[in-house]
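User: I need a structural model of TBC1 domain family member 24 from Poecilia latipinna for a docking pre-check later this week. Nothing fancy, just the predicted structure tokens so I can convert them on my end. Input:
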Amino acid sequence: MITISESDNWEICSSSGMKYGQFVDWEKIDPEPAKKYQQILKSGHQQLKRMGREGFWAISHTLRAKAYYHIIHNINSRAVTPNRDVYYDLAKKLFGEQKVMGTLLPLFLSRYCLNKAGMNSVKKILICLGSYFPDMSYCPILPALVSLILHFSEDEAECFYSVSRLICYKDPNKRYIDQTFLTYRASCMTFGDLANRCCRGIRKLIASSHQNLFEFYSDWIMWLFADLPFTYAIRVLDVYLLEGFKVLFRLVATPVYFFKMRFLFWPDYSDVEDFRTDMKRFVQSVARHCTVEKLLERAFQIPIATRNELNLLFNANKDALMQKGVSTHQKRQTVESVDLNSFSSSVVTETEMRVIWAWIPERFALFNPVRLFHIAEDGRDLSSLYKRVEGHEPIVLIIKTMEEEVFGAFLSMDLMERRNHDSQGLTYFGTGECFVFTLRPSMERYQRAMVNIMTRIASPQQHRDGSSSASQLANREVCQLTKTSGQNIVCCLCDFRVIFSGGDGGHALCLCDNLEEGNSELCDTFSSNPLCKGHFQIQSLEVWGIQNSIYLSRSFHSR
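Assistant: Understood. Predicted structure tokens for TBC1 domain family member 24:
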């Protein structure tokens, strides 16, 4: 373990930093911070995480400065980090003896309690970082991080060194700083996916108002580092330095949750002209809604994916952005949004399709919907549905009943997977991203609160003996895929009917081979109620894919 050298130079004091009191031994007046600092030095990483969450070093400015020094200098960076001498050389080369006055800083930094000399130092450090890391082309949170860490640094060189260690940290499962527009937007999308799980309802709210959901989530990290009050931002930094990017996803989900709760008491949200601006104002005034302790408490109660799953999701989102033409080297650009102005369907309205597209994973929602199957054009035949749909991933199945009920399911995998398993029993397949939903008479999405991109093969299961109508219908062999956290996820397919299911907990959706009728019941996998009144007659049915989905069925059928 690296410990702080020349500890006698680090006075644990309660002074405000003013020059008076410099001859006082503050440890004798208030020995508690000194004792806490010794505890910090003796603590392992897990203990430090708990301390950070509890505000262990928040009692003293200098104690927090020493804690940050200890934490940052123990970050195991995999790259060579520039030291203090590098900063002095860069500053001399770039500025000489002149002060930097011309560079503009973001307006939000005025809330970070820095004087003119401090703001000038922030400019110098940012310019030096830009010079030393030329590949870092887009990093909106950098001015905030420099400003916050400067509060607790001995001088500019130490702040430069500390921030450089965060920039150089290369472990993909514990990132600190996005350095390109591509990775920044991939992180925005990753948060959007997580918010879709833990802040249910907010996406439907924004999509129903025809506002840009993608742009709404693009501000997520700035809510924490630019819009939160200063005392809240410092507590965010306490845990961020120890836990990396993952903890930011937790922390930002809390104000989004409280923002959504407002609309439970204000159902008429039609006069909200811009949810993005409204959210920004809400975060700035978050102290009116919860204390920083309550925000942290709530954040660490939120179930979230593992670091490995988050990394998988981040990389999948990054790949999707690259398919949209976003490159690593461009400094900034907008991402083309989905165009539903020319959307046409006999089952759902444009607004309803916007809601569905708000529910599906971000990497798919980047692309326009494409209709793959419609019974009015392709016939009431399950084999025809397979022929039209196989090779596309993902798909959205939407049904309208004779009772004018509208509901459906999102399947994250290609239906061709049903051919890949040789089993005499039922086999389910899919991932934790699959879900079922209703649109009419009410809008609701049913999905387990998990993120699971990797598809894991589950052993075949014989069809359960049960009395439900869906169970009585299914009597021929099918094939299976994927178990997640002890629950069978999602979709069961057979030769003459398709069953969107959760395994032994009931079938969320069951369709007959002639696509004339079906059934829906309670389903444990999705924690879903019946999607309709139970047994239903099909008035219309459509299957939708996405514009960039990989189409393999031609090559498959040609073999």
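Before docking, keep this in mind: Residues 181-198 form the longest helix (18 residues).
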